[in-house]
Amino acid sequence: MLILNDIIDRDRIIQTLTNLLSNAIKFSSPQTTVTLDARLQNDDTVRFQVQDCGRGIPPEHLETVFDRFQQVDAADSCDRGGTGLGLAICRSIVQQHVRCDDARYGWFGNFF
Questions:
Q1: Number of domains in the chain
Q2: Which of 43, 70, 92, 100 lies 20 to 30 Å from 79 when distance is taken between CA atoms?
Q3: C-alpha pair distances (Å), 40 with each of 8, 18, 37, 44
Q4: Are 47 and 34 in contact, with CB atoms under 8 Å apart?
Q5: How many other β-carbons are positioned within 10 Å of the β-carbon of residue 59?
Q6: Residue 105 falls within a domain, yes or no?
Q7: What range defines the domain where residue 80 resides?
Q8: 107 domain-assigned
Q9: Per-residue pLDDT tens digits for 69-79
Q10: Which of 28, 74, 30 is nearest to 50 (CA)?
């Protein structure tokens, strides 16, 4: 069994969850629910999910929403604040926590 504290940067994971929760709250209507779900997938993988009741991301923005300085609506930076860096930072942190363990699982690898 892997010890999660040995392979994750706890502060960066907290930063990611904080950014995601902040976005969910920022882009949801007042008095709506924002939820954070954490599930242990197996001995060494945790899945986090942030869900809100916001307006969502239009399909045409799904490919770029995690790019630096991107916002779905440019007016949001004036109305709600932000630089368009939050999701790019989240993506970078998550990518740093994905690894492939070839030795244990053969040439196909195990990604988490």
A1: 1
A2: 92
A3: 15, 19, 10, 8
A4: no
A5: 7
A6: no
A7: 4-27+35-98
A8: no
A9: 777 765 555 56
A10: 28
